[in-house]
Amino acid sequence: MLLISTGDDLPGESRTGDGYRYRLVAGGGPTLDEAWLSPPRVGDHALEAALGDLASASGVRPGSVLAPFAIRWIVVRGDNPFAVAFTDQVDLTPIPAGPELTVFENEAVIPRVSVSDGSDWTWSYAAASGPAAPGARVRIADNADPRWRPDWQADEWANSTSAAAGVAEVATDPVARGAAWGALALLVLGLVGLAVPGGGSPEGEDR
Amino acid sequence: MRRTLALVVGTVLAFAAVSAGPANPVQPAPGPSTAPARFRTCLARADRGSTPVLAISSAAPGPVAVSATAAGSLEPVTTSPIGAAGGGVVALGDAGLVGFATLLAEMPTDATAAAVITRGERGRAAQACAGRPEPVVAVSGGSSLEGERPTLVLGNPFATDAVVAVTSASEVGEDSAGELSSLLVPARSTVTVDLGRLLPLREHLSVVLTAERGAVVGGLVQAGDGDVAAGTFVPPAGDWWLALPDVGQQSATLSFISLAPTDVEYQVDTYQAGQVTEGMETGSVAPGEQVVVDLSEVVPPAGVRVTATGPVVASLSLTGEHLRALSAGVPAPSDRWFVPGAGVGGPSVLWVFNPGATDLDAVFQPLSPGAQARREPLPAASVTAVPVGGGSRGGYLVEAVGDVVVMWTFGGEGPAGFGPGFPADG
Question: Which of residues 72-111 of A touch B (CB under 8 A)?
């Protein structure tokens, strides 16, 4: 879901365009970790450029422009360039949402995970699965990240993997995974130590 | 010495007078600042006995995707390539259109123009396509007298419902139909209104569309006496230029409607065979009212300029035996013009209005592969008729060495089509 506003009234952090602010949120409902945005990466820059083009664009299909970013819903608030750009267009269906907001459903949306043979895959945060399709490719509309596998390739700013195995996932680094588990273990031990009566306190040591 | 000084001063004053051109006491209001659009919206009527075609002129090659409204959806019609020559024609006879439809032509560049050309039993018409819809547009030149059938056509190819207020003016002043004060034009649909039923027996009708929500393209289709005319609604400006053609008309009428909130001063000048008649008509027009100027005494071809201190829309209508023709003017001269439709499917005449004090010439390039361009002189303060054959694939590009105005006709001495050129730089 793409949120656009002129004011500083978007939930959590947002990015800045020419005369507007915007951000993406997951379609399933906002989560606490979405309050903060990570530093912009290649896909974020691509979205920034696409929005800049749309705001001043002369085309008539903004939905097609936003579709590769897996944007299905667009919420526009305030008097910003998109209030005009989204009037003379043919692939964003307006949804009545009150006088303060304009909501559009993108008729041209491409799912976050799409397979070149058209098969239907499901996905979670870091994995996707569906019918195995030898020779087909899976496109994942996230910032390009070589940890996606199998057979990762960059698809412009997004990811492409093989669909042959019926699964695509982010492979974690064993060293990083070990370090994360170690840190978690230390944290638990520290908490346990603090929870034991007298344990770890200066008084106990003196005793 | 004194005689020499007087000669020098006299020469300088004379030169200054010629260079400045005719003094114009009415300073025009600013013209429209139209947003760029890589698409054109057009109105077409397809039925038995008529064969509409969409003629396209483009500054860049590439595909043109044409869609049409049909029963609440926007259906693809065809994708037609525009070649390096810059012209293209889409036959709409096989597009499955029923009655009036709105076309959306997605172009390879902003610098394009398009028109729907109709030849058939109903008559001949050239309907200019519009760019990005403007919130307030107008057209003049309608009539609902006995035997005349004016139809308002509103097209909305977009995904958002539109609501428009339709107001009008006639010889009695502001003259609107209450039923049209707030008219819904659903998304991806075309709505027609029989103005002859709502506003009968008006000799001269001007119509204004104000979009309260969404956007529409508007057309006024004027049928009568075996011919049909089609005018496209255009945004207002303070300066209008028109070429009065000679197609055997019995009468020619200039009309314009004021969209200003206060009274507007205006002046009408004519240019004919090197002679400029300033202030042929001057006066003041009240908000929402129209001015009608009979040009029957002006020998065609001739140029007409309307200057107004506020926003107006000016059109030229021609009538004769089995002849109805209508076109809005253009808000500014230019040195490069697209004339989509000229020479498509039959001979046409380009009417080139050189309003300047200097003779010019222009190159007329058919937008067809391998077609030869030709150069024609354009005498000062005159309209020059340039007949062209019927072999063009998308119209003509006119490139003049100075600023001119181009309009065009086909047919005549009977049914005729009449339309404007479009500045070729988008």
Answer: 84, 86-94, 107
